[in-house]
Amino acid sequence: MAVSCTHGHLADPRATKAMLAFRKAYAPQIVLHLGDFVDMAALRAGARRDADDPDRAESMADDLLAGLSFLRELEPTTIHLGNHEDRLCGLAHSGNAVVSYAAGQVLARIDDAAKEMKAKVVPYAGLRPEACTQLGDTLFLHGTLYNVSAARDHAEALGMSCVFGHTHRVAQEQGRCQRPVVGYNIGCGIDLSVGYAKGRRQTLGWAHGFAYGEASDNACVVNLVTLSPHYRLPL
User: N or C terminus of the chain: which is more exposed, having fewer CB within 10 Å?
Assistant: First the structure.
């Protein structure tokens, strides 16, 4: 099972409830969170520059608590860091001592929680091999490309079938390669009406979803589940 982009305190309770219900009902052996399990809006570059930006007032503590609470309920075997967690990695070395300390403290809490859950942590490294978990013939990663053909483009860039989040869309698309590769975009768990989504038409394509399937040493079968608007789980 793979989920992505639950974004801490911005998660939609209907989506996370359905994800956890599937986890409990089917008890998959391998569970991956593909990243952005926290949001950390207060550390966004624009928020740090603009004293009047409302994101600047967002609580990092509440965000972290919600993100880790969901992870503990999900009990992932592998936790990928997404671009929102990677923001913390960069800011831990900030020249601003307050920002550096805050980012470092959040990272330490995440690391402690992962050790407590005995989950492997995979860094955010774009499309590089160290950013990926391989199951059979399929790569799992947070993702980095952001467009309406991101499923196709990720598969082509990696040269393998892949499962990723990042764009908050649910999509499946064949790569234009000599051997068959497929990109699976698994959607998100964030509130679809979250504030920063309201001004962009592309966010109307966001959907709650996740992926599940079967893997062997040399193959992986991937199924996409679109939750919104009905939140009905596979039978």
Answer: C
Overall fold of domain 2-226: Purple Acid Phosphatase; chain A, domain 2 (3.60.21)
Question: CA-CA distance, 143 to 151, in Å (whole number)?
Answer: 9
Residue 212's Cβ-count burial label (10 Å; 0-12, 13-18, 19+) is buried
User: What token pair was written down for 90?
Assistant: 């960069």
The pLDDT assigned to 229 comes to 93
What are the residue boundaries of the structural domains of the chain, listed by start?
Answer: 2-226
Residues 6+ apart with CB under 8 A from 123: 81, 86, 89, 130, 131
Average pLDDT, the chain: 94
Give the tokens for residue 175. Answer: 């790569």
Q: Which two tokens stand for residue 25?
A: 């009902």
Task: Render pLDDT for 160-209 as a digit per residue (tens, 0 to 9).
Answer: 999 999 999 999 999 999 899 999 999 999 999 887 777 778 888 999 99
First to last CA, the chain: 15
The crossing angle, in degrees rounded to 10, of helices 60-74 and 13-26 is 20
Long-range contacts of 147-151 (CB under 8 A, 24+ apart): 148/202, 148/205, 149/173, 150/183, 150/185, 151/182, 151/183, 151/184, 151/185
227: CB partners within 8 A, 6+ apart: 14, 15, 18, 19, 187, 207, 208, 209, 210
Kindly indicate the confidence band of residue 41, based on its pLDDT and cuts at 50, 70 and 90.
Answer: confident
**Which pLDDT tens digit goes with each residue over 86-96?**
999 999 999 99
